Amino acid sequence: MTDTRIGFGYDSHEFKSGVPLRLGGMTLDHPEGLAGHSDGDVLLHAITDALLGAVAAGDIGSFFPPGDPRWKGADSAIFLNLALEELQHAGYCVVNIDTTLILAAPKIVPIAGEMRARIADLLGVEIDQVSIKAKTPEGLGLEHVAQCHAVALVERVQEPEELKSMSEVIESQRQLEDVVDDLLSSVHGVPKKRIIEPVYDTEDIT
Ligand code: MG
User: How far is the CA of 36 from the centre of ligand 1 (A)?
Assistant: First the structure.
């Protein structure tokens, strides 16, 4: 895989009375919450899918099927955490996340800072790596729905496979030279030489 990759996530949930509004890992003061098998956190679901998508690891539904009773009312931070683990397993870390929420209410701008801090905390990154934007659903006829789009840029943190294999070549060459040196010194009684020619020009990989 290349050094940087991008992922995209989208989700929507309908507003419903009688449940708390969970958004961005926070509980907001609002007359209605979002319906869902989990806590309905549309923002965390979109980010989770963006992260999974960045490393082609499937989507939130493939890890947490909606009908599974274990995830009923679940804190969506669990899903985000799983996506982070998949990201780390693939050898990548988050560069930045950008999101757009689309909902009629509540107003997001006054709480966007706190929400960014909360998500940065969940992702283990700095607040300036997380962006939250919000729009109202003008002309969509979706006044009772919350939607979210998210993109995630990730970058490789582990040594690329090509470099790993190259260092294995160097190591095996060193071992071979050691064996030859030992043979030469035992047969001819000559002192061991330690001249190691690099198999590539080291200037080329800086
Ligand atoms: Mg969802």
Answer: 7
pLDDT score recorded for residue 50: 98
Q: State the distance from the centre of ligand 1 to the C-alpha of 33, rounded, in angstroms.
A: 13
- pLDDT bracket for residue 107 (50, 70, 90): very high
CA of 47 to the centre of ligand 1 (A): 10
3-state secondary structure of 117: helix
Q: How many residues does the chain have?
A: 206
What's the 157 CA to ligand 1 centre distance in angstroms?
Answer: 29
How far does the centroid of ligand 1 lie from the alpha carbon of residue 41, in Å?
A: 7
Q: Are 173 and 134 in contact (CB under 8 A)?
A: no
Domain range annotation of the chain = 4-156, 166-204
Per-residue confidence band for 184, with pLDDT thresholds at 50, 70 and 90: confident
Superfamily of domain 4-156: 2-C-methyl-D-erythritol 2,4-cyclodiphosphate synthase (3.30.1330.50)
| Position 177 pLDDT exceeds 50 | yes
Burial of 15 (0-12, 13-18, 19+ CB in 10 A): buried
Tell me the CA–centroid distance for residue 14 and ligand 1, in Å: 10
Predicted pLDDT of residue 162? 53
Tracing tokens 């907001």 back to the chain, one arrives at 28
pTM: 0.77
DSSP 20-68: -EEETTEEE--SEEE-SSS---HHHHHHHHHHHHHTT---HHHHS-TT-
